[in-house]
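Schema walk-through. Below, the input block comes first and the output block second. Nothing else is stored per chain. Lengths vary across the set, and this one has 320 residues.
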Amino acid sequence: MNMTLSKRGDYVMRSAIALARAYESGTPRKIREVVAETEMPRTFASQILADLVRAGLALSRAGRDGGYRLSRPPSDITVLEVVEAAEGSLRAERCALGEGPCRWEAVCPLHETWTQATTRLAQLLTETSLAEVAARDEAIEMGRYPVPADSHRSHARSAELSDVVHIELGAAAVHEVLGSRRNWSAVLGAAVHDVGGLESAGTATPPLVADCSIEALPTADAEGDEEGYMLAWRLSEPGGRSHFEGELHVRPVDAERSELQVSGIWHQDVEAGALPETAAIEARARRVLRGMLRRVAREIEEGLQKEALSSSRGRSSAVL
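--- output ---
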């Protein structure tokens, strides 16, 4: 069960922690400073910080002495407020058991338990202040925070990746699909299956896809207005876990062709005693990224072709 924040929630929490650690100085933080501290893509930084401003958790001021700072002390801000600034209200939007048999038309047998679990999680997040999380972050940075027995991170290996694939569609059509669909887990799963699993202890097992999303965010950077996307995924497999986070851009080639360009960082966590060579990890990561981009392009092309065919058949039926 995936209990992690979305990529947007991840960046909002990182930014809130950075502002919390700077609060006592009384000096607003520039976007470039927050980006450097959080490793958040520069392209999306202003949009992420705007989430905190809209939620009333941060203030922004333009000008040479401007920047972003928390609207009140971090000890007065709860983790729940930060999470909800990015993720929305922490409540179940639909029944935990889906549709169910006809006798479940009004309520399902898991409803009360699920509601109580959500309520308790919200209560814990409310009882935890942003100041506490910022203090933990500082302790971790200084090497003073004990690593918990169930830590999710170990032996991290990172690789900077970039790739480009062509797509036989105009940029406007590509943007339409990318802007309307966020979950690409099945597409990533197929791409990873094609590449094969991470070699671990003499075996290769296809990994499990935890999550993959392409989230559109309007951006405005120094090079001008441009629409970009956050591409992020997490994988889990016997040899370890990995995740990728980066930026995706659509570049027009001509009226009927475009390029999908991706750049980002692949993080590989591998278990002790099962440490593949860094070169092998990077090579596999590049193959996965290339396979993912090719499948995204194919998915967009085939999806729009089916849509056009369906629309054509509809018009023909109307004429008859």
